Amino acid sequence: MKDLTGLYFPVIIFSGEFHTRQMDNGPKIAIGIMDRQVGVSGRLDGAFHGDGFGRISGGFSAKTSGGTITLYDEDNQTIARSPSIRLRSGSDSTFTLSHVTIGISFHWERTENQTFHGDIVLRSRDDGTMAVINEISLEDYLRSVISSEIRSTAPLELLKTHAIMSRSWLLSALDRKRDAGKRSATAAGAAASEDEVVRWYEQEDHDIYDVCADDHCQRYQGITKIASGDTETAIRETAGTVITYRNKVCDARYYKACGGITENFATAWDDREIPYLTGISDASVTYQPVRTEEEAIGWILSKPEAYCNTDDTDLLSKLLPDFDRETKDFFRWKVEYTREELEEILLEKSGFDFGTLIGITPLRRGPSGRISRLKVAGSKRTVIVGKELEIRRWLSRSHLQSSAFIVTAKGNPRGGVERFIFHGAGWGHGVGLCQIGAAVMASKGFDAGQILTHYFPGVELRRLY
Q1: How far apart are CA 269 and CA 1, in angstroms?
Q2: Which residues contact 404 (CB under 8 A, 6 or more apart)?
Q3: pLDDT per residue over 351-371, tens digit each?
């Protein structure tokens, strides 16, 4: 990729269009680190200053009751009481939060202590809980995002790719949020009734901060995973650079592994076409999109040549965080349930009692084989569910790795169904950039520009600030 420094005049996005203007380190954004909490604790290292009560440092805790947050110091002495408390950080100050949940509802969910730069804001909610919000500049935010999504030992061109992509996603998300207003996640659903549930999730439901810190938006797990070297180089060499389409910053979506073909935007989200978020072959050869159930069976049961079809353990260890490496079968996978076990999962995750489960039938697929409409039939009721993530959520105690699957029902001697066997492809929604595929491309000598234009066809690189 060409050196981006000075390649484009400095611009800033405003209501989707570009305007010349200088910026230092990008806009300041608000990230929801923890939410719906009744109590939090942590440590303030360095000088923090609270509005109305001055300097504070050391251990702290906070509890909420009746819409009021009470902040305590390490000696359990009350420091402040207010519906909203802001602690402004000094230049070298950091704060640590205890027991932050990551991978929420996914198979690798866990808690860890995380350390952050920037200001910390505690805000109460009407339900008696509170949110913990970090306010920081966009470029500093990206340092954490890239180090949380992939390891700093990943190839430099992949780190550059991720910096440009994550910056683009964030700026586009902020612009969409301004345009669309604050919608709830449920309001994004196209249909919800006793016979059909079609739901997808966007970041617009984050009402009191810009984005969350988990996989629902982008991973943002603090500064402890930021290593010296290539991550800093990638941020510096791509500073302010984004991908654009028709003079607008791109909604640059990404995930772990496509399974050989990427997916259309509408399979996972609302019913509209986005030209740069469309199915493409993740390989040096071209594959035809999946169109029928017969083609889905053939595709998912095969292991075609693809960038993300790799067993290069050295590359994967340089790319994936420890908890991601626990998932070994990301290109092709298999999950098996007894009928009774799947009935329990469906009741727990959907809220519907299907009775005796009779069959699971794909009704609509995208080009990668991912299902956007699925019929679940039981002795008591039949429901159609979509879209991609909701299907995955219904069929697992966490989430299935993707909705690109075929289902085989194994019968018992009495003529009923005994087991359901799922064979699947890929890991994630499949829309946009395939992280593992992009890593393989980088290891083969592709530069960031080539990787981005492969996964986001028709885009251009622009520098905003």
Answers
A1: 32
A2: 259, 296, 300, 365, 368, 369, 370, 371, 424, 425, 426, 430
A3: 999 999 999 999 999 999 999
